[in-house]
Amino acid sequence: MMIAKQAYEDFICELGSAKPTPGGGSAAALVGAAGMALGNMAASLTVGKPKFAAVEDELRGLQSQAAGLSAEMMALADADAAALLPLTKAYGLQAPQEEKQLVLRQCLHDAAQPPLNIMRCACRSLSILEQFLAKCSPLMISDVGCGAALSRAALEAAALNVWINAKWLPDQDEAAELMRETDAMLAQYLPLAERIYRQAAERVRP
What we know:
By secondary structure, the protein is an all-alpha fold. 80% of the residues lie in helices and 0% in strands.
């Protein structure tokens, strides 16, 4: 299943079904991709206007980064689903306990990686959205704020998907390292998401 190629309606139907994939990580990735794309739209509707000529080169550079991030998160939607399937099978594995634990450890490690990367992408997206907020046309500020809201949702949703895998990891050192990285990202970037959203709201509310 290629989530990135599915119609929205098909993806939502799959998401609400009894199938184990796609799940929260894939949904977080697509929400994050949409958030970054909204920021890119704001820049697209700003560049080329004489009033913003002084920041046009900067915006074009940011647009290239934003497009790359959106594409990366779309790919991570598939990566998350692909990593989750072996884990669901591992729980039902009929094998000696030691062998099963080794398989589970690897599957849990693998399943934690896509949502961790989604979080990293969401953090980078928020850094770009902060610059879009400062440089884009005031007419597009609501879209930048929407992008921040979606990026925040992706960040928090992906964190939950890292944690559920870390919780059952037999390797406590690896689990602790996952917690350290996710906590650090949340501590730094949730306030940034809130600040972008609040500033956008202040500028567009009548």
